[in-house]
Amino acid sequence: MAVGKGGKGGKGMGKVGAKRHSRKSNKASIEGITKPAIRRLARRGGVKRISSFIYDDSRQVLKSFLENVVRDAVTYTEHARRKTVTAMDVVYALKRQGRTLYGFGGQYKLKKQIAQKSNYYQKNDSSEKNKNFFSQKISIIVLQVSYTLDMNMNHGEPYCFYRKLNAEEELLITYEVSGRNPDQVSFKLYDEENKYSPFHQQARMRNGQYLLKCQKSQEYILCFQSLDNQGKVLQFEMDLINNKHNNYINDKSFRQTYDMTIKCYENMHNIYSRLRHSLKRHEVQQNYIVSTENKVKWCNIVKMLFMIIITGIQILILTGMFKDYNSFSV
Q1: Which of 113, 110, 78, 75 is nearest to 95 (CA)?
Q2: From 136, 145, 165, 299, which residue has the greatest number of CB atoms within 10 Å?
Q3: DSSP letter at 244?
Q4: Structural domains in the chain (count)
Q5: 78 vs 82: CA distance, rounded Å
Q6: Mind listing the pLDDT tens digit of every residue in the chain (330 residues)?
Q7: Phi, psi (degrees; rounded to nearest 5) at 55
Q8: 190 within 8 A of 220, measured Cβ to Cβ
């Protein structure tokens, strides 16, 4: 990337040397992209205004979004009309390109929401170590019920996810790691009672599964961490089960499915039988109609022939009578 000369209209995308903008420039350098660079990318895409939330907290995501906005015809049309970019525009545009926000790493956090959700853990603890613990580890707040995420794990940094569960809910966590040394990964779970020591952990397993059963409503932190500096790709899925009796892997559910299948087959058989009878009846009626039409046609033909024969006989009789009358008169 080019190094700018600083100032209000600087072109730097990495380091910035302006002293009078040092505070903003340092923040921009940490995020990986400066404000002037974002402005230039926005102008190229026809965008005049950018939402402050993604402008301040997700600059790298916004940069990647704007770099692709010209190539995305749908996105370009939307922004050419509205001249603005919001957080949901970035999400939808990346989704259309087959990408997600999770693939950009954990260092670009949603800081405002994380701060709100982590206040519970920091309420009665003023030490610097405990104050920065969750703000450094939480990568994103998990809000959906069931989803699959792909993310890159680099440099041994922990990637953690916040999830709140209600009482009697169960969360099925399944993960698989690929890349270099895929078994060099650890998986840890924290809750409100174990904020700094995990109550469950798995290490040196390239894939695994864990069923988290929540007895009371509380918050959980799920952390994945690479045990070396090799690049890896983590894919994991979370399935929320509202009630343990509704789990699809049990005898009761199988029995219900079997009964429903039998009933469905019976209904299908009845429908097939009725349809077959209707088709047969329609076929018989069609044949009867055709046969009746043929009979009527032949009857008309016979009537016409009969009338022709009678007419011919009458003509012959009358002709003979006139011949006989002429012979008598002579």
Answers
A1: 75
A2: 165
A3: G
A4: 3
A5: 6
A6: 333 334 444 443 344 444 444 444 334 333 455 666 666 666 665 666 666 656 655 566 666 666 666 555 555 556 556 666 665 666 666 566 555 544 333 333 344 444 444 444 444 444 444 444 443 344 444 444 344 555 667 666 788 887 888 888 888 888 888 877 888 888 888 888 877 788 888 888 888 888 888 888 888 888 888 888 777 787 778 777 765 444 455 677 778 888 888 888 888 888 888 888 888 888 888 888 888 888 888 999 999 999 999 998 988 888 877 776 666 555
A7: -65, -40
A8: yes
280 in a domain, yes or no? yes
Report the alpha-carbon distance of residue 197 to residue 223 in Å, rounded: 12
Distance, CA of 30 to CA of 34 (rounded, Å): 9
Interatomic CA distance for residues 197 and 199, integer angstroms: 7
Phi, psi of 172 (to 5 degrees): -95, 115
Assess if residue 139 is contained within a domain: no
Q: Do 151 and 223 share a structural domain?
A: yes
Q: Residue 63, Cβ neighbours under 10 Å: how many?
A: 19
Q: Which residue reads 């500096």 in tokens?
A: 229
DSSP 191-248: ESS-SSS-SEEEES-SEEEEEEE-SSSEEEEEEEEESSSS-EEEEEEEEEES-GGG-S
Beta bridge partners of 176: 207, 235
| Whether this model's pTM surpasses 0.85 | no
Cα separation, 211 vs 238, whole angstroms: 10
